[in-house]
Amino acid sequence: MFERSRNPELWDLLDSLQYGDLLSGKIAAIERFGVFVDLDDVPDHPVFAGVGFISLPDLSWRSFEDPSEIVHLGQSVSCTFLQFDTWNMEARLSLRENQPDPFQAFADATDVGRELRARVTRLLPFGVVVEIFDEVEAVIHRSELAGEQDTAQREVQVGDVITAVVLGLDRQRRTVRLSQRQARSDLG
Predict the structure, then answer these.
(1) Angle 84-88-93 (CA atoms, 0-180°, nearest 5)?
(2) Which range of residues forms the domain containing residue 36?
(3) 90 and 12 in one domain?
(4) What does the DSSP assignment read for 55-99?
(5) How far apart are CA 108 and CA 135, in angstroms?
(6) Which of 46, 114, 147, 177 suits 103 as a labelling partner, its CA being 20 to 30 A distant?
(7) Which of 188, 121, 124 is CA-nearest to residue 153?
(8) What is the rounded average pLDDT of the residues 67-94?
(9) 174: how many CB neighbours lie within 10 A of its CB?
(10) For residue 111, what are the CA distances in angstroms to 107, 115, 165, 173?
(11) Do 79 and 118 share a domain, yes or no?
(12) DSSP label at 16?
């Protein structure tokens, strides 16, 4: 834990920030657990590569395997201040807060019962992940895949485009329930 006395100028600056403040800087380090940002016009951090830190969920609305798919070293970014982490003496930041939530745009344009085209992006033991809208993915449970129950999942491959019907939308949880089995047509 850092004490205020170790770097009072940095502490006071971070303590004065409010949720939602926009801060700019450059990506200083990319780690498997998050990204450090060297903030503009802020004293250097005594230990870390930058005073700002973006956790993986706050990097982007879309799913990704590696943070370097979203940002690169030296990239200039504008981030939303979330909170002052007094334990690490850093600004917790969000890159995705500055971007519209693609799920909400999808939910605004979609009704339960709508059929849509979905591209399979991953195979899971319990179903498949499909991209249903720009940067919006959903899981189709294996029980909702078309075909015979025991072979349906083996018949779908990554890259396939399938037709699915929207069974439900949950805006708060940002989830969509889909069924390939209940789709009435091939949108071909």
Answers:
(1) 45
(2) 7-98
(3) yes
(4) EGGGT-SS--SSGGGT--TT-EEEEEEEEEETTTTEEEEESGGGS
(5) 15
(6) 147
(7) 124
(8) 96
(9) 16
(10) 7, 9, 10, 17
(11) no
(12) H
CA distance 140 to 163: 11
Band (pLDDT 50/70/90 cuts) for residue 54 is very high
Q: Could you tell me if 86 and 69 lie in one domain? A: yes
Q: Which of 98, 117, 142 is the last residue of a domain?
A: 98
Last residue of a domain, one of 70, 98, 126: 98
29-38, long-range: CB < 8 A, 24+ apart: 29/73, 30/67, 30/68, 30/71, 30/72, 30/73, 31/67, 32/66, 32/67, 34/59, 34/67, 35/59, 35/67, 35/71, 37/77, 37/79, 37/93
Average pLDDT over residues 28-54: 92
Residues 114 and 79 in one domain: no
Place of tokens 């100028």: 9
Both tokens of 7, joined, read 């770097």
Residue 14 token pair: 């971070």
Q: What is the pTM of this model?
A: 0.76
Alpha-carbon gap, residue 134 to 49, rounded angstroms: 33
Instruction: Provide the token pair at 172.
Output: 């708060």
Q: How far is Cα 182 from Cα 56, in angstroms, rounded to an integer?
A: 35
